[in-house]
Amino acid sequence: MRYRVVLVVRLKEGLLDPQGKAVEGALPSLGWTNVSHVRVGKDVELVVDAVDEAAVRAQVEEMAHRFLSNPVIEDARIVEVAAEVAGAPGSP
Amino acid sequence: MRYRVVLVVRLKEGLLDPQGKAVEGALPSLGWTNVSHVRVGKDVELVVDAVDEAAVRAQVEEMAHRFLSNPVIEDARIVEVAAEVAGAPGSP
């Protein structure tokens, strides 16, 4: 069974996010003065072939911890796990 | 009223995603051979001060189109708009 997974990796709260600060600093000159707390993270989409959703979640959490994020400074969170319907875009 | 917004920016379908390919290419050597279709996008979190949710959505869509994404090669999608409760973390 194939599952489409979305994983979000964000810097931990309290850590300075230079990319977010850069965005935030540019907004007023473009006319938007009501935006704050900008943080930029990573959105990782992937397809995993596994027996069930529990196996997918366990594997993606291990991948996030060992490879896709830096657990010292980042939090990784699975925001979506959806079984792929045969014949859908991306299916074999 | 302050709203917390999450915007996801991804390369359009069909476009080559070198970062996703790099991740995908590294996974088998780490023991994960059942992962495919890896795509890496941006996750932008921000707080907008506006009168209502409709105003927030309109503004963030304009920001996404003009500044936070490249509409030629990327799709931007608002995935969350939540009113901030006074006294919550990040509120003034």
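The first helix of chain A runs from residue 18 to 26.
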